[in-house]
Specification:
The structure is a single chain. By secondary structure, the chain is α+β, with helices and mostly antiparallel strands. Among the domains are: 46-240, no CATH class; 530-641, no CATH class. The protein contains 18 helices and 23 strands. Strands 2-6-7-8-14-10-11 form a seven-stranded antiparallel beta sheet. Strands 1-4-5-9-13-12 form a six-stranded mixed beta sheet. Helix 1 (21-45) packs antiparallel against helix 3 (76-93) and helix 8 runs antiparallel to helix 9. The longest helix is centred in the N-terminal third of the chain and has 25 residues, at 21-45. 51% of the residues are buried.
């Protein structure tokens, strides 16, 4: 085997991947419960009536906030879009005629709602007609369009039905006439990024360069002077300084994107912007965007990211504050933000496999994002603290229900994040029981993973090559070797591969002639390992988090009783065992020998001159993404650490 240079990689389509095992169970929860629940709750909220021209408009259901002159009702199209996208992926896994008919009916409504020029937006057609394209800074028109575009691509790929795709192509064609620097055109962009990455998906599925060009236009224009948001406000008779968020940093529009060096503002908007930038960097081979993104990546992951892959500590702006400001009990860490980080990390891999991105993608996926969905697929987290006194629980719905369909569509499409394909190479970014079909220059190839990952690190990959090419094919394989996998080993057909010579940017790059029946054996040791925060993170001084493989673990009151902060973890993790916990889908829990501070000798005193005595104890840890799936109670990620 020889190494191979970097190529241009694109994610595989969701229908090209079949999942079982860990992710198969999560996808079944989405198929069996979440997909229908999303529509049920959208309908109950009034979203279906809002787009149905055969019914009267519901009017303003959620009052307008005078501070920003908007209502979360303005986002309803996006919630329906993400719900349809989730349904599309679930239909591929589990055909459901009733669910498909409900989605088709919604798509028919959008077809009737669409105006002759291609415009389609429930709020600006049925609630505030005549105000379209007048406040892009605040009112989410392009954001809503983007989510409907992503739904259109997913529904076409899953069902072969083009109606929604055709609707959104007409809408995108309309946008091309509306936005630009020509006479009468708008030299602007959306306050909430999303359409940028959606247009790339549209371009890839239709082959239309014009959609890529429009996405690039939105990215290139952002933050340029004279500032569009300022000019737009003046044109609309509004004082540009009378802006509820006070600064254009909130939507990452404070300076041109290639000049941005610090991750600021609203976390979800930032992740969607960087995702769109990374897509355009891949499609246009734009090193100026890649260079900016690499700087922003380091800024986020080295100074502003929770150990769970959660981002955005503050509720006030749903986003970023200061460097190393990572409170645990008040962590906002919105589910959508970690979903967005998965999107961005995945797209950073478009210019070639690199584990600095894939490791974080896995970290955010398993810990920051997946936490937002209950095991049964029926309830959700919006914000994700790393410490709870027992009062934080999953909820059924939200007046801004962006997170439920966002985590649902990610889970339902996770196969497309596991693999990516270049002209003649397959990259395996994530591991899990699955199979993928890929069309390469060397022929049609199928890879099948056999593994109980993330509970077990033994991974076997079977290679199958199309017999039409003679049963052999020459292509490359890139296999991620996680940074945490100390002592990893790799064999091809029983022969050991020297990782020291074959690993480039954290991936074993194997290039050669493959045949049906070839077997790759990868062993990733899943050792319990401590995670210490930088001393600059004041909230975690003297504390340790525990990880096993890609999973961050936590302690819950239901396993350990009260006073979780009394546990003290030794620096040497010698005495620990694993076990399976019933009711958590075969999850592997960890039992660890620790100490516990004894408060019994304080005799009613609040303070004294010596610390608490410590007694031997055992603590049970479960994966953080599974907390609050059993009896309610306190939870803690960062434990005291001792000698």
């Amino acid at each position: 085997m020889t190494t191979e240079n970097k190529s241009q990689f694109r994610p595989v389509a969701v229908p090209d991947v079949e999942l079982n095992g860990f992710w198969g169970k999560w996808q079944d929860a989405v198929c069996d419960s979440t997909a229908a629940i999303l529509l049920d709750r959208c309908e109950k909220a009034g979203m279906i009536q809002a787009i149905d021209v055969n019914q009267s408009s519901p009017g303003i259901v959620i009052p307008i906030d005078e501070k920003w002159t908007g209502s979360t009702q303005m986002f309803w199209d996006s919630d329906l879009g993400k719900s349809i996208e989730t349904i599309a992926y679930s239909l591929y896994r589990k055909p459901n005629a009733e669910l498909e008919a409900r989605a088709d009916a919604i798509i028919d409504m959008y077809e009737k709602l669409q105006q002759e020029d291609g415009y389609v937006n429930a709020w600006f057609q049925r609630v505030q007609p005549g105000k379209r394209w007048t406040n892009l800074r605040d009112h989410h028109e392009l954001y809503c369009a983007g989510h409907l575009m992503e739904a259109a691509v997913a529904y076409y790929q899953a069902t072969g039905k083009r109606k929604l795709l055709d609707i959104m192509c007409r809408y995108a064609d309309h946008m091309i006439t509306v936005f630009g620097h020509g006479e009468g055109q708008i030299p602007g962009y959306c306050g909430h990024q999303e359409v940028e990455l959606a247009l790339v998906k549209m371009a890839r599925v239709t082959g239309e360069q014009k959609y890529l060009d429009l996405s690039k236009f939105f990215i290139d224009e952002r933050g340029r002077q004279p500032h569009f948001f300022t000019a737009e406000a003046i044109r609309g008779g509004r004082d540009p300084k009378d802006y509820v968020h006070k600064t254009y940093e909130y939507s990452q529009a404070h300076e041109p994107v290639r000049e941005q060096e610090k991750v600021v503002g609203h976390a979800v908007r930032a992740m969607y912007q960087y995702s769109g930038m990374a897509d355009i960097a891949t499609e246009y081979h734009d090193d100026t965007l890649t260079n900016a993104l690499e700087t922003l990546w380091d800024d986020l992951t080295v100074k502003q990211m929770y150990v769970t892959g959660g981002i955005g500590p503050a509720a006030i702006n749903e986003g970023f504050t200061d460097y190393y400001d990572l409170p645990n009990d008040t962590a906002y860490a919105e589910t959508c933000a970690s979903v967005g980080l998965v999107f961005w990390a995945s797209r950073m891999l478009g210019r070639g496999p690199n584990r600095r991105y894939a490791d974080v993608m896995e970290q955010a996926l398993y810990n920051g994002a997946l936490t937002g969905l209950a095991l049964d697929g029926k309830t959700f987290f919006y914000d994700n603290p790393l410490e709870s006194t027992g009062k934080h629980h999953r909820w059924v719905w939200h007046r801004c229900p962006c997170c439920p369909p966002n985590i649902a569509r990610l889970v339902a499409s996770v196969g497309s994040y596991m693999y990516a394909v270049a002209d003649n190479e397959i990259a395996v970014h994530l591991y899990g029981e699955s199979s993928v079909k890929a069309k390469l220059k060397g022929g049609n190839v199928k890879l099948t993973q056999h593994t109980d990952y993330p509970w077990n690190g033994d991974i076997r990959i079977d290679v199958d090559v199309d017999v039409d090419v003679g049963g052999t094919a020459e292509f490359g394989l890139a296999l991620r070797i996680p940074e945490w996998a100390e002592g990893a080993s790799l064999k091809v057909n029983g022969e050991t591969v020297d990782l020291a010579s074959s690993v480039i940017d954290g991936y074993a790059r194997l290039n050669g002639t493959w045949k049906k029946g070839d077997v790759i054996a990868l062993d990733l040791p899943l050792e319990l390992r401590p995670q210490y925060a930088s001393p600059k993170v004041r909230q975690d001084v003297g504390r340790v988090a525990l990880a096993r493989g890609p999973l961050i673990y936590c302690v819950e009151e239901t396993d350990n009783g009260h006073d979780l902060n009394a546990f003290v973890v030794p620096q040497k993790l010698a005495g620990h065992r694993t076990k399976t916990i019933e009711g958590l889908n075969g999850a592997v829990a960890v039992e660890l020998d620790v100490s516990r501070e004894d408060a019994s000798g304080w005799n009613g005193s609040l303070y004294r001159t010596r610390p608490a005595e410590q007694v031997p104890a055992t603590v049970t840890l479960v994966p953080y993404h599974l907390w609050d799936n059993r009896e309610p109670g306190a939870m803690l990620v960062w434990l005291q650490t001792g000698k």
